[in-house]
Protein backbone atom coordinates (compact mmCIF):
# COMPACT_ATOMS: atom_id res chain seq x y z
CA UNK A 1 0.00 0.00 0.00
CA UNK A 2 1.41 3.47 -0.84
CA UNK A 3 2.46 5.63 2.07
CA UNK A 4 0.18 8.53 2.84
CA UNK A 5 2.19 11.64 3.71
CA UNK A 6 -0.28 12.97 6.20
CA UNK A 7 -0.34 9.70 8.14
CA UNK A 8 1.49 10.66 11.31
CA UNK A 9 1.75 7.09 12.47
CA UNK A 10 3.88 6.17 9.44
CA UNK A 11 7.24 5.76 11.17
CA UNK A 12 9.85 3.33 9.93
CA UNK A 13 12.45 2.22 12.46
CA UNK A 14 15.79 0.69 11.45
CA UNK A 15 19.43 0.39 12.55
CA UNK A 16 21.53 3.53 12.21
CA UNK A 17 24.11 3.44 9.41
CA UNK A 18 27.15 5.64 8.74
CA UNK A 19 25.23 7.58 6.07
CA UNK A 20 22.74 8.76 8.72
CA UNK A 21 25.42 10.64 10.64
CA UNK A 22 24.87 14.13 9.10
CA UNK A 23 21.11 13.94 9.88
CA UNK A 24 21.78 12.58 13.37
CA UNK A 25 24.32 15.36 14.09
CA UNK A 26 21.85 17.99 12.86
CA UNK A 27 19.10 16.64 15.15
CA UNK A 28 21.56 16.40 18.03
CA UNK A 29 22.71 20.03 17.68
CA UNK A 30 19.11 21.25 17.35
CA UNK A 31 18.06 19.34 20.44
CA UNK A 32 20.77 19.77 23.05
CA UNK A 33 22.69 22.70 24.49
CA UNK A 34 25.78 20.51 24.81
CA UNK A 35 25.60 18.21 21.75
CA UNK A 36 27.77 15.14 21.21
CA UNK A 37 30.38 15.50 18.47
CA UNK A 38 30.68 13.09 15.54
CA UNK A 39 33.74 11.55 17.25
CA UNK A 40 31.75 10.93 20.40
CA UNK A 41 29.00 9.18 18.43
CA UNK A 42 31.49 7.05 16.55
CA UNK A 43 33.48 6.13 19.66
CA UNK A 44 30.28 5.16 21.42
CA UNK A 45 28.90 3.11 18.52
CA UNK A 46 32.19 1.20 18.22
CA UNK A 47 31.65 -0.24 21.70
CA UNK A 48 30.31 -3.74 21.84
CA UNK A 49 26.63 -3.74 22.85
CA UNK A 50 26.12 -0.11 21.85
CA UNK A 51 23.39 0.25 19.21
CA UNK A 52 22.11 3.09 17.06
CA UNK A 53 18.50 3.26 15.86
CA UNK A 54 16.84 5.80 13.58
CA UNK A 55 13.19 6.59 12.87
CA UNK A 56 12.25 7.65 9.34
CA UNK A 57 9.18 9.55 8.26
CA UNK A 58 8.72 9.85 4.50
CA UNK A 59 12.27 8.54 4.03
CA UNK A 60 13.78 11.35 6.10
CA UNK A 61 15.55 10.72 9.39
CA UNK A 62 13.11 12.12 11.95
CA UNK A 63 14.76 10.88 15.13
CA UNK A 64 17.51 8.70 16.56
CA UNK A 65 18.42 6.78 19.66
CA UNK A 66 21.69 5.36 20.99
CA UNK A 67 21.41 2.64 23.60
CA UNK A 68 23.51 0.06 25.38
CA UNK A 69 22.50 -3.54 26.02
CA UNK A 70 23.30 -4.84 29.50
CA UNK A 71 22.46 -8.20 30.97
CA UNK A 72 19.33 -7.08 32.82
CA UNK A 73 18.62 -3.67 31.32
CA UNK A 74 18.76 -1.40 28.29
CA UNK A 75 20.42 1.96 28.95
CA UNK A 76 19.40 4.83 26.66
CA UNK A 77 22.40 7.13 26.14
CA UNK A 78 21.05 9.63 23.64
CA UNK A 79 17.64 10.14 22.08
CA UNK A 80 16.06 12.99 20.13
CA UNK A 81 13.42 13.78 17.53
CA UNK A 82 13.85 16.50 14.92
CA UNK A 83 12.02 19.60 16.21
CA UNK A 84 9.66 19.77 13.16
CA UNK A 85 8.55 16.17 13.78
CA UNK A 86 7.87 16.42 17.50
CA UNK A 87 4.47 15.60 19.02
CA UNK A 88 3.72 13.32 16.06
CA UNK A 89 4.41 10.01 17.74
CA UNK A 90 7.97 9.50 16.44
CA UNK A 91 9.54 9.35 19.93
CA UNK A 92 6.78 7.05 21.14
CA UNK A 93 7.36 4.68 18.20
CA UNK A 94 11.08 4.43 19.05
CA UNK A 95 10.42 3.76 22.75
CA UNK A 96 7.78 1.15 21.86
CA UNK A 97 10.35 -0.55 19.64
CA UNK A 98 12.76 -0.64 22.57
CA UNK A 99 10.09 -2.00 24.91
CA UNK A 100 9.44 -4.78 22.40
CA UNK A 101 13.07 -5.88 22.90
CA UNK A 102 12.59 -6.50 26.63
CA UNK A 103 12.28 -10.02 27.92
CA UNK A 104 10.41 -11.01 31.04
CA UNK A 105 12.81 -12.22 33.81
CA UNK A 106 15.85 -11.40 31.69
CA UNK A 107 16.51 -7.95 30.21
CA UNK A 108 13.38 -6.46 31.71
CA UNK A 109 13.94 -2.72 32.20
CA UNK A 110 14.95 0.42 30.35
CA UNK A 111 16.90 3.10 32.23
CA UNK A 112 18.00 6.60 31.30
CA UNK A 113 19.08 9.89 32.82
CA UNK A 114 17.12 13.10 32.18
CA UNK A 115 18.28 16.60 33.08
CA UNK A 116 16.26 18.09 35.90
CA UNK A 117 15.48 21.10 33.66
CA UNK A 118 14.24 18.95 30.76
CA UNK A 119 10.56 18.92 31.68
CA UNK A 120 9.40 18.02 28.15
CA UNK A 121 11.37 14.77 28.19
CA UNK A 122 10.26 13.97 31.76
CA UNK A 123 6.60 14.35 30.72
CA UNK A 124 7.18 12.28 27.59
CA UNK A 125 8.80 9.38 29.49
CA UNK A 126 6.18 9.53 32.23
CA UNK A 127 3.43 9.29 29.62
CA UNK A 128 5.10 6.15 28.26
CA UNK A 129 5.19 4.42 31.64
CA UNK A 130 8.63 5.44 32.94
CA UNK A 131 8.99 6.46 36.57
CA UNK A 132 11.67 8.56 38.29
CA UNK A 133 13.61 6.24 40.57
CA UNK A 134 16.44 8.45 41.81
CA UNK A 135 18.40 11.67 41.60
CA UNK A 136 22.00 11.68 40.41
CA UNK A 137 23.68 14.69 42.01
CA UNK A 138 26.13 16.60 39.82
CA UNK A 139 25.78 14.01 37.05
CA UNK A 140 26.76 16.32 34.18
CA UNK A 141 30.22 17.73 33.47
CA UNK A 142 28.85 20.71 31.52
CA UNK A 143 26.36 22.13 34.07
CA UNK A 144 25.89 21.80 37.83
CA UNK A 145 22.34 20.45 37.40
CA UNK A 146 21.28 17.02 38.63
CA UNK A 147 19.87 14.15 36.61
CA UNK A 148 16.70 12.20 37.30
CA UNK A 149 17.13 8.51 36.80
CA UNK A 150 14.03 7.21 35.00
CA UNK A 151 13.08 3.60 34.54
CA UNK A 152 10.58 1.53 32.61
CA UNK A 153 10.08 -1.95 34.06
CA UNK A 154 8.43 -4.90 32.37
CA UNK A 155 6.27 -5.68 35.34
CA UNK A 156 4.78 -9.08 34.70
CA UNK A 157 4.50 -11.97 32.34
CA UNK A 158 1.15 -10.83 30.98
CA UNK A 159 2.61 -7.48 29.89
CA UNK A 160 5.56 -9.32 28.36
CA UNK A 161 3.26 -11.62 26.41
CA UNK A 162 1.32 -8.62 25.14
CA UNK A 163 4.59 -7.12 23.88
CA UNK A 164 5.65 -10.40 22.33
CA UNK A 165 2.33 -10.65 20.48
CA UNK A 166 2.76 -7.10 19.20
CA UNK A 167 6.28 -7.99 18.09
CA UNK A 168 5.13 -11.02 16.12
CA UNK A 169 2.20 -9.08 14.64
CA UNK A 170 4.46 -6.29 13.29
C1 LIG B 1 11.45 13.91 24.26
C2 LIG B 1 11.23 13.74 22.75
C3 LIG B 1 12.20 12.68 22.22
C4 LIG B 1 9.77 13.27 22.51
O1 LIG B 1 9.60 12.93 21.14
P1 LIG B 1 8.23 13.20 20.35
O2 LIG B 1 8.32 12.49 19.05
O3 LIG B 1 7.94 14.67 20.30
O4 LIG B 1 7.16 12.51 21.31
P2 LIG B 1 5.74 11.88 20.89
O5 LIG B 1 5.10 12.72 19.85
O6 LIG B 1 5.92 10.44 20.57
O7 LIG B 1 4.94 12.04 22.27
C5 LIG B 1 4.17 10.99 22.85
C6 LIG B 1 3.44 11.57 24.04
O8 LIG B 1 4.37 11.99 25.06
C7 LIG B 1 3.89 13.19 25.68
N1 LIG B 1 4.76 14.34 25.34
C8 LIG B 1 5.70 14.40 24.37
N2 LIG B 1 6.31 15.61 24.38
C9 LIG B 1 5.72 16.32 25.37
C10 LIG B 1 5.90 17.64 25.86
N3 LIG B 1 6.81 18.47 25.30
N4 LIG B 1 5.12 18.06 26.89
C11 LIG B 1 4.20 17.25 27.45
N5 LIG B 1 3.99 15.96 27.03
C12 LIG B 1 4.74 15.51 26.00
C13 LIG B 1 2.49 13.45 25.10
O9 LIG B 1 1.57 12.76 25.91
C14 LIG B 1 2.60 12.82 23.73
O10 LIG B 1 1.37 12.45 23.18
P3 LIG B 1 0.45 13.58 22.46
O11 LIG B 1 1.35 14.37 21.53
O12 LIG B 1 -0.57 12.77 21.72
O13 LIG B 1 -0.10 14.42 23.57
C15 LIG B 1 11.42 15.09 21.98
O14 LIG B 1 10.68 16.10 22.64
C16 LIG B 1 12.87 15.55 21.90
O15 LIG B 1 13.60 15.17 20.99
N6 LIG B 1 13.30 16.39 22.85
C17 LIG B 1 14.67 16.96 22.83
C18 LIG B 1 15.72 15.92 23.13
C19 LIG B 1 15.48 15.26 24.47
O16 LIG B 1 15.11 15.89 25.45
N7 LIG B 1 15.75 13.94 24.51
C20 LIG B 1 15.59 13.13 25.71
C21 LIG B 1 16.84 13.19 26.48
S1 LIG B 1 16.75 12.13 27.88
What do these coordinates show?
The chain is α+β, with helices and mostly antiparallel strands and 170 residues long. It is built from five helices and seven strands, in the order βααβββαβαββα. It has helices at residues 21-31, 38-46, 90-99, 119-127, 157-169; strands at residues 12-15, 50-57, 60-69, 73-81, 109-115, 131-136, 147-153. The protein has a seven-stranded mixed beta sheet with strand order 1-2-3-4-5-7-6, with helices on both faces. The two termini are 15 Å apart. The model is unreliable at 1-6 (pLDDT under 50). It binds coenzyme A (COA). Coenzyme A binds next to β4, α3, β5 and α4.
Structural topology:
Elements: E1 12-15, H1 21-31, H2 38-46, E2 50-57, E3 60-69, E4 73-81, H3 90-99, E5 109-115, H4 119-127, E6 131-136, E7 147-153, H5 157-169
The structure holds coenzyme A (COA).
The site of coenzyme A (COA) has 19 residues, from strand 4, helix 3, strand 5 and helix 4.
| Helix coverage percent | 25-40%
Distinct small molecules = coenzyme A
Q: Tell me the number of strands.
A: 7
Give the full name of the CATH homologous superfamily of the domain at 1-91. Gcn5-related N-acetyltransferase (GNAT)
How far the N terminus sits from the C terminus, by CA atoms, comes to: 15 Å
* CATH architecture label name of the domain at 1-91: 3-Layer(aba) Sandwich
Instruction: Assign the CATH class of the domain at 1-91.
Output: Alpha Beta
**Order of adjacent strands in the largest pleated sheet:** 1-2-3-4-5-7-6
Shape: globular
Q: Please summarize the sheet with the most strands.
A: 7 strands, mixed
Are there runs of 5+ residues with pLDDT below 50, and where? 1-6
- What is the radius of gyration computed over CA atoms, rounded to a whole number of angstroms? 16 Å
**Fold-level CATH name of the domain at 1-91:** Aminopeptidase
- Structural class, by secondary structure, is alpha+beta
Helical segment count: 5
Mean pLDDT, all residues: 89
Quote the beta fraction.
25-35%
Element order, helices and strands?
Answer: EHHEEEHEHEEH
Amino acid sequence: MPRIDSDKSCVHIRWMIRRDMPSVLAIESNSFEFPWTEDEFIRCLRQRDCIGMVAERNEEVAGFMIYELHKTRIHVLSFAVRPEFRREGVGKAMIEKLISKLAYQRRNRIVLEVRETNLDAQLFFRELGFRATGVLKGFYEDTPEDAFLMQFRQENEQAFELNANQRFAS
